[in-house]
Please model this.
Amino acid sequence: MSGGAVIYNNRVLEHWTETTCSCLSGFLFLRGIMGKEACLRYTSSTSLPPPLSLPLMPGFSSGGLGGEVGGPAASPPCPFRPSRFVPVSAATTFLVGSTTLFFCFTCPWLSEHVSSVIPIYNAVVFLFTLANFCMATFMDPGVFPRAEEDEDKEDDFRAPLYKTVEVKGIQVRMKWCSSCRFYRPPRCSHCSVCDNCVEDFDHHCPWVNNCIGRRNYRHFFLFLLSLTIHIMGVFGFGLLYILQHQHQLDSVHSSVTMATMCTAGLFFIPVAGLTGFHMVLVARGRTTNEQVTGKFRGGVNPFTNGCLRNVSHVLCSSQAPRYVGRWRGKQTVEVHPPFLRPPLSEAQLEAKVLDNGIQNDHHSSRSKSSLEQMESQSADAEPPPPPKPEVRYPGLPRADTEESSLLSEGPSTPSMYKYRPAYSSPQRNHTALTHPNKMIRGDSLDSPSILQSSRQASYRSEPSSLDGGSVIGLAARGGERGEGPGGSSGTGGEVAGGISGYSLGGRSYTSYPSSLVLSTGGSHSSSMRSAHTHHNTLGTLQSEGTTDTSYKSLANQTPQNGSLSYDSLLTPSESPEFESAAHELSPQKPHAPAAFPPAMTSSPPPGVRDVPLQGYTSPFLSAQMAQQREGQLLQGSASFSSPNRAYLRAFSPPSPNPPHAAHPETQHHLLHQDSRHPHLRATSSIRPLPPVSEQPSPSSPHACSPDPPVSPPLRGPSLRKSPSYTGEAGLQHKARPMGGGSLSGEGGVRVTQAPQSTSRPGLANHSTSKPVGGVKKVTGVGGTTYEISV
Amino acid sequence: EISAPWTFHNLQELRHSASLANKVFLQRDYSDGTTCRFQTKFPSELESRIERPLFEDTVKRLNIYYAEAEKMGGQSYLEGCLACATAYLIFLCMETRYEKVLKKIGRYIQEQNEKIYAPRGLLITDPIERGMRVIEISIYEDRGSSGSCSGSSSTSGSSAR
Model:
């Protein structure tokens, strides 16, 4: 990567020479703050493009000047766009110019005739303002490096678009970022201008030409405060001068002072307005993004710790570290065999026996959609052969495919590669699920984990809507991925024209069969990934409790959590359906719970029905589960067998949405799904489903435009903010593919929102009116709903 | 020979007989907000590789360190005041509290790797390299003993199938 680093340096130098004088002071800070890191050598990741990000100013966010940059890269090289520097240049010019004039023309008289402290005071305030301005401009806001390929193997296409995590009892969903290839942590958002995911994303400020995020929010806030004070000082002292020189108003000094006062007065109103707005935000512990998208309109903000703590967090917390462009020390730890292995416990041995038995049962390769496998197994009505008494773990995974090799290694369950555990209270299921997961191999592998999760979760959750949502989400993920490279600028728009909004229980998901198909076609191993995801998501259902929480929420109302629904959708024997099906088929389960002692120890969360499902389930059962999933997915398709149908019927009433979304065409499609082509599967799941309860359209105008407190000058720039800024309004599934389209203007955003808004109000009532048992649902105007565990 | 060239940038130097088989990612625990905590859930892939108490100890210790880094106490407040007073020039010569703790964490991870994980064919990657989103644990297999050479990583894809 040294060549890339050289190129990077050259291009940086080019841009450097083109920048305006506003960069000069920033450079000092830049080198000072980033010098240590920037001047050290980095090793670079060969799998990522050269880490040249943006020209100079925001470019610093991803790398350092004057050093080799490598390692985790932020965004790929961007074209140099001079228009981005206009606001920041103007701001700098006004700030520095006006203050200089003030010092030159007004301060001498003031220091002589009033007090000599005045220039000192003004100088201090001005320096403070300038320092914070430069820090806000040049400091990395908290950019996440792109995830490396091995981290997101399974998070493609078939993986859910959203994952839910419980933050202080409130469900927060994490969206998959197709550009950065990871699930965005809470409060993280992707800035389309900078093409980076930023931690604690506040907004992209054109006046500093930088994102405001976790690391530089304090500087931005202090900049606003100090600028307000500085403006007041300049205006006030200028007024004092003028009042004392009323007879000399035509002199140069007076005219300059008056000009300075006019400038100060002109900027005071918007700056003070913005300062007040941010003071409110800080006190409430919200980001601009959250405020404008109305995330917490219901009044429940899981990220607040009280006013005092919020303020101290902004002002007094230690400077957060940067993630991009860090110096990587050479690690000298060597790994070479022989490796120590921990002794196996009795339970583990037993599990292994079971595991091997299951493993030998059916398909070892996951190269095709797992549904395919399920299909083949469904025909097998015989119980599985007795497990071989093999104690030792089999060798390394059969490497028919890259994914499978990484996925299904000998001793472990579907690798965590494929599964993104939903982040919830970790203590909930984890012991419960580890063993069952370990023991399960192949399809049936999923069952125990599902059993566990289903044990925890209420089986009254809405499988159909869940499935629909998850499929959609997958497709959305695929679509997003397809448009990911170009999506940040928004020019790519939708990957395929057939994207229609489909929101599930207040969550916005896009259904994009065509996009999924396209992206599936484009992906080299999408089918495999999907297959893997199926099992892995199941295997990894030992998720922390997101299962129970999201299922809980699902049970109580329309599913809010896209991730869980997606997960369950994809994995054939996902918990809710599995639970009921397992009930029906429980006699078939031969193995006692003895093999899963730890699994049973975890206590299900309150309000969740305890289902005594456990142990090994037959592949037949899993296959049935898969079929059930399909049925659920397609909203109770008639093609399912009777037990499934009964199950489906049992489940459909609780949710208003799934029957709502049922399509005869989907059933028709389901019939054709026997071939189990991933393509077809995708296609069936892609059927455009009517948008499920999305937030009513009144939220959309709000989502389009910034809050009134935001000063007018920022209205325009605010629209240029990242898609998530405007799109978080729950219309992301529409706005996201539109990406830049939504950024083009309010009108553009409204246009994209229009198609969805019509169908939403009717459905929104369903979601909001659903009674909640144990979970209180809070709907934000922006379209995001949060469940609060009661 | 080395099976996965891209791993060079990472912690390990691979001997020819160990190959990267899998990676486990420990995700963040957001149950208490956005403060840095990692889930202590024991991943199934490590069942046969390391004893659970050792693993949990490591993760808990890391959580403690991160909590210490993010603690808002007198030191961070003074640091902020000093930075403001010097127009942030103090950062030219002083290391922030967070960075100090991160160095401590790096040393701790290195020590854990040397003492506990590497002998078991595992390697922990400092989460800071992943943006503190995940703790990556690389699982190595003894290539000599494994029948089929699993593909080590998809990026290299150089392992024989």
